[in-house]
Here is the input.
Amino acid sequence: MTKNYKDEIEEILNKAGELQKANKTSKHSDSFYQKLNKILFSKEWKIAPGYIISLGIALILTFIILRNVESVFISISGWLGLALVVFGYSIIFVKPAKTKKTWRGREIDYEKNNWIVNLLKKFKN
Here is the structure.
């Protein structure tokens, strides 16, 4: 009797288009493709100094391995790798813009202001 109910439910879901056939691929491959799509097509690309330095080191290693090959691109990859390492290292020291911290819509002021500054703030608003 429970098999009849199960068959009826599956038939209704098939008619509604909500029941999908089981894919023959495993969950691991689906999750890999989903992660790959998320990495490649995400709108939030972050250029971190570590990534830039790693790419520069990879280009320098490519140059070291292939330096006996006579090609213009090999020497360009070495110089580009060196430039990327220097650029990535310099990004580490650039300070981001100071963000204002808020709590419940109000700006948090960590500095202790004297009464004159507080009075001037009230008149500005």
Remarks:
- The CA atoms of residues 65 and 74 lie 10 Å apart.
